[in-house]
């Protein structure tokens, strides 16, 4: 009903699924999100610190991922902050959900909560639905409801799809969402963009870009919150 809540999965990351949800799906549907949930784990943030061993599929996790180390988590929170900022620059309230693992320490969760709230998150809660089912998601559900009911979200698009040129739209995604400082085009890309700019129907479309999901940049090896790349 009109007083209920509709939840949907935007896709992987604020830089990928989130950006497309806001600037393509919301653009065409007219639907505006009241809240976005950013999911994180202690283990992922330790990886994004750049100081933990690489995770290799099929191999046991290094001890850094399963032993208490709040400072390693804090260093990795640069990645979380970037995702929070990507959501809030669209004017949407952010709730951070920490998916708890059995090896997590409360001190590590406290660091995440501290950093998230200090950098614009509406709330940050621990989610335990994997272990406890629906009961483990009550705190998350209540936080999302509170964020929606707060009435403080003011959705805005990243760019004006109809008014801005293709390169302008691409540049905004790269510099304001990914963290880069410029865009370099291959000769073939330059040729195609020049062609599309001459067609008003194509020129006015929002941009749908693909890149690695392992980094905010286009390089999967760049962890954390890389800046200044091309």
UniProtKB/TrEMBL annotation:
Presence of the UniProt keyword Ligase in the record: yes
Keywords, sorted A to Z: ATP-binding, Ligase, Nucleotide-binding, One-carbon metabolism
Superkingdom field: Eukaryota
Pfam families (UniProt xref): FTHFS
GO BP, sorted A to Z: one-carbon metabolic process
Molecular function terms, GO-annotated: ATP binding; formate-tetrahydrofolate ligase activity
InterPro entries: Formate_THF_ligase, P-loop_NTPase
Record-given protein name: Formate--tetrahydrofolate ligase
Protein's organism: Strombidinopsis acuminata
């Amino acid at each position: 009903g009109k007083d209920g809540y509709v939840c949907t999965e935007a896709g992987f990351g604020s830089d990928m699924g989130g950006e497309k949800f806001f600037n393509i799906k919301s653009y065409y549907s007219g639907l505006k999100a009241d809240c976005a949930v950013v999911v994180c784990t202690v283990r992922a943030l330790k990886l994004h610190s750049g100081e933990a061993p690489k995770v290799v599929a099929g191999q046991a996790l290094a001890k850094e991922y399963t032993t208490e180390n709040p400072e390693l988590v804090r260093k990795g929170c640069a990645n979380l902050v970037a995702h929070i900022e990507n959501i809030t620059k669209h004017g949407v309230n952010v709730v951070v959900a920490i998916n708890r693992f059995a090896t997590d320490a409360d001190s590590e969760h406290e660091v995440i909560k501290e950093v998230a709230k200090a950098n614009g998150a509406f709330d940050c809660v621990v989610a335990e639905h994997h272990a406890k089912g629906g009961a483990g998601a009550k705190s998350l559900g209540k936080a999302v409801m509170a964020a929606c009911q707060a009435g403080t979200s003011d959705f805005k698009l990243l760019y004006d799809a109809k008014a801005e040129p293709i390169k302008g739209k691409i540049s905004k995604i790269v510099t304001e969402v990914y963290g880069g400082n410029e865009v370099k085009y291959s000769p073939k890309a330059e040729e195609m963009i020049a062609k599309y700019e001459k067609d008003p129907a194509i020129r006015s479309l929002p941009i749908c870009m693909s890149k690695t999901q392992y980094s905010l940049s286009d390089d999967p090896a760049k962890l954390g919150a890389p800046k200044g790349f091309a």
